[in-house]
Amino acid sequence: MKLIIAFMVATVFLQLSACARTQVPATVMYTLTIPTFKPGSVAAESSDNILSIDVPRSMAAIMSRNILYQENQHDLNAYAYSRWSDTPNRMIANLLLARLRESGLFKVVVPVDSRAKSNYVLESVIHQFHQQVASTDRSRVQVHMSFYLLEKNTAKVVASNELRASKLTPSVDASGGVSAFNEAVTDISQQVEVWLRTLKL
């Protein structure tokens, strides 16, 4: 009987010791920051068109709060203790809203679920949104998106474009990846504005 009790006490002690040694790091939350954009030209502000921004579509791995990285061609992993504050899809939609509102290209720019009646809808697809790790001291982020401008009433595609941005990371970790993601997405939003400006709607 004493041996059984001693064994049970030893087992509990070992379990408590293991728990004490295992300290799970706190999860760090990151976001895509919306920078301050310069207002568009006065001439462009005369447009009467209203634009709706749809939330970009993507594969399920991107449509999550995981911060993704890739070490080999066919794998896709997520940082264990680093997360996005929202999905990249929603954060990119918010960034595009802010950018195109300041561009002066449209009278009003609204999210797609707004009750406002728009003339055009900007749809998009995220093909790539991950950090590529080439070695222990070098990595870059890859953002690849397709954009489609549709007439709201007819659903006719007015124009489409495929845009990419690739940025080196300041460090090979989640923090460095997030810094480069912010640069890449800001670059993409600028490319979208330039593209829409050439359409002269």
Task: Briefly say what this structure is.
This protein is of the alpha/beta class. 31% of the residues lie in helices and 34% in strands. Residues 2-14 and 16-20 have low confidence and may be disordered.
Topology readout:
Elements: H1 2-21, E1 28-30, E2 50-53, E3 57-58, E4 66-70, E5 77-84, H2 88-103, E6 108-111, E7 120-135, E8 138-151, E9 157-168, H3 174-199
Parallel strand pairs: 1-5, 2-6, 2-7, 3-7, 4-7
Antiparallel strand pairs: 4-5, 7-8, 8-9
Helix pairs in contact: 2-3
What does this 3D model show about the protein?
The structure is a single chain. Helix 2 crosses helix 3. The chain has a single domain, classed as 3-Layer(aba) Sandwich (Rossmann fold). The protein is built from 3 helices and 9 strands. The longest helix is centred in the last third of the chain and has 26 residues. Strands 1, 2, 3, 4, 5, 6, 7, 8 and 9 form a 9-stranded mixed β-sheet that branches. The N terminus is likely disordered. With 201 residues, the chain is α/β, with parallel strands linked by helices. Strand 8 and strand 9 form a beta hairpin. The termini are far apart. Helices cover 31% and strands 34% of the residues.
